[in-house]
Inverse folding.
RNA sequence: GCGGUCGUAGCUCAAUUGGAUAGAGCAACAGGCUACGAACUUGUAGGUUGGGGGUUCGAGUCCCUCCGACCGCACCA
């Protein structure tokens, strides 16, 4: 990674602590000095726990070690301008940076602008599959969650220099497509004859009606006399195409674009499934028994071997998965999948596929926990069986893309969440996303009000040495956390950290805004504060964009407030 | 029965991957608009991190064990 000025300064601090620790301990074996920002700001800007780690081996109390190391490091002349204080508290060594350090950090943001926090290309390729739904109906609320999580992770990864391919798998190879075809056919017949029976296991709900009408409009009533074997493939394919197109429209309306829409059926037809199975066979992890072809998944920890080709020659669902991931692992170093909670049993099998192809651990599964939707205090049934679906489009209509995406991403995948529709609908102003957007709009408003010449000087980083107030330093410090925050989002596959971070930035800006007037009487101070405001705007906009949320220049007043 | 994920304030969720006094937002209570946007803000109250044991300088985080919720355990997908 390219070193920048603040990083270099921090490296000097680490080096000083390292030297001090070596001087303090006779045998000189020192673990690498990790400086981390403590939760509690009273503990300084950065903190090291070396003394705690070394205490046992040195057979000395940690506090005593910490004091000694701190005293030595404090004497290091190289730190004079960047460090304000080094203190030893409870075994920790706390470092407080000088204002110049934070001023420099603001300067860096102004210089790099939109690229602040961006990582250099890391040469790592990742396949990220998420959102995938059966092509038998519209997207429902739950997919809103995986779409939000997956898309934000993908964006954050790209921002960090990872090469990401986002993928959507269309499960169109199984018997569910036949069910879809029969359901659609019934709807098609019902247009002419409302008493035509609907299949018992068909997909209820009226979403197939417009598709049936479209087909009738195109081809008329010519299927009415045909036998099922004749019309079924036509209806199944037509239904799938229409529904997948609709799913794609919804995803894109939600701000999510996939690089790849992979059909399972196509994997069969292209011969990829055969190739995948052959690749397994070549590695000796398949065998024939009871007329079927088995995969030796127990070799990699599964509790039983799995059939991949049935006795009658038809491949099981596992076959296209093998093929797909064989392909993925050739294109990417790592394949990540975000799946629903009903796919636990799947994790081990995917793991064995990776191991079978010689890349153990290369397939990673993130399970998004169950989501309960509540309306008016009652659980909304989301069963397609009952045709009682709450679609993602409904949600977008009700609460908007920004609010929905921010809401979904506030919670980590592994936490089961409750989605309260009534709350989302009735109290959208309480959604934290508006607080963050409001902060951004407020800065835009200030910038618009300032004379252009002043803005230009602020943008060039002039007079930043005027930033010394507590609220100013606190805000600058927060902004400096951004690169590390994005990295932790990627490493932890946890966009919630970015959502929370954006809230904290907005909050710190508000504190600053309340305490100090940006455009005041003293010109240099105004320039400096305007610079800080511009840097904040840059970071807020970037954070929001990574979350798939817009960063508006202005926001319309809420009706509720006007009535108050 | 076996296996997986989860359990944190009244509610919805965090917690820098093992760090210091577990934090936000809603809801509750008490204040604040003649400053660049009050969708704001200041403060109060709210906790045995499901229970118990263990590992160590240090545990919400790791291990064991109970309790509870959800989900898997097919030649279905």
């Amino acid at each position: 990674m390219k070193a920048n000025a603040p990083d270099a300064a921090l490296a000097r601090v680490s080096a000083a602590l390292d030297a001090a620790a070596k001087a303090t301990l006779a045998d000189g074996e020192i673990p690498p000095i990790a400086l981390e920002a403590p939760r509690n700001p009273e503990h300084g800007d950065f903190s090291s726990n070396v003394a705690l780690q070394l205490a046992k081996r040195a057979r000395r109390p940690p506090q005593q070690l910490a004091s000694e190391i701190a005293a030595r490091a404090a004497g290091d002349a190289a730190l004079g301008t960047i460090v304000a204080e080094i203190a030893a508290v409870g075994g920790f060594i706390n470092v407080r940076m000088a204002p110049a350090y934070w001023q420099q950090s603001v300067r860096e943001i102004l210089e790099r602008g939109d690229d602040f926090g961006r990582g250099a290309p890391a040469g790592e390729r990742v396949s990220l599959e998420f959102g995938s739904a059966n092509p038998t109906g519209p997207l429902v609320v739950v997919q809103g969650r995986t779409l939000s999580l997956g898309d934000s992770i993908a964006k954050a990864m790209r921002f960090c220099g990872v090469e990401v391919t986002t993928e959507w798998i269309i499960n169109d190879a199984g018997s569910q497509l036949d069910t879809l075809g029969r359901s659609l056919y019934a709807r098609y017949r019902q247009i002419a004859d409302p008493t035509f029976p609907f299949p018992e296991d068909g997909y209820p709900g009226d979403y197939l009606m417009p598709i049936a009408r479209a087909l009738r409009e195109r081809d008329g009533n010519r299927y009415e006399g045909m036998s099922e074997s004749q019309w079924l493939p036509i209806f199944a394919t037509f239904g799938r195409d229409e529904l997948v197109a609709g799913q794609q429209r919804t995803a894109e309306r939600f701000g999510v674009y996939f690089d790849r829409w992979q059909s399972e059926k196509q994997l069969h037809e292209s011969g990829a499934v055969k190739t995948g199975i052959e690749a397994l066979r070549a590695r000796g992890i398949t065998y024939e028994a009871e007329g079927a072809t088995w995969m030796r998944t127990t070799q990699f920890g599964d509790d039983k071997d799995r059939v991949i080709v049935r006795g009658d020659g038809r491949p099981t669902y596992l076959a296209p998965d093998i093929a797909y991931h064989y392909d993925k692992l050739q294109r990417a170093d790592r394949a990540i999948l975000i799946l629903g909670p009903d796919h636990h049993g799947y994790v081990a099998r995917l793991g064995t596929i990776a191991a079978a192809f010689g890349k153990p651990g290369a397939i990673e599964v993130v399970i998004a926990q169950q989501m309960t939707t509540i309306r008016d205090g009652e659980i909304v049934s989301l069963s397609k069986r009952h045709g009682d679906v709450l679609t993602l489009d409904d949600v977008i209509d009700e609460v908007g893309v920004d609010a929905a995406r921010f809401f979904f991403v506030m919670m980590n995948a592994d936490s089961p969440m409750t989605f309260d529709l009534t709350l989302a609908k009735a109290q959208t102003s309480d959604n934290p996303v508006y607080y963050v957007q409001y902060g951004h709009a407020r800065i835009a408003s200030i910038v618009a009000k300032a004379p252009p010449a002043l803005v230009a000087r602020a943008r060039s980083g002039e007079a930043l040495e005027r930033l010394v107030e507590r609220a100013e330093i606190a805000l600058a410090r927060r902004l400096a956390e951004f690169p590390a925050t994005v990295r932790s989002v990627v490493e932890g596959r946890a966009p919630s950290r970015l959502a929370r971070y954006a809230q904290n930035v907005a909050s710190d800006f508000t504190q600053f805004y309340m305490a100090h007037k940006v455009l005041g009487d003293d010109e240099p101070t105004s320039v400096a504060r305007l610079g800080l405001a511009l840097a904040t705007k840059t970071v807020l906009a970037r954070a929001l964009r990574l979350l798939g949320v817009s960063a508006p220049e202005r926001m319309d007043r809420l009706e509720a407030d006007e009535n108050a």
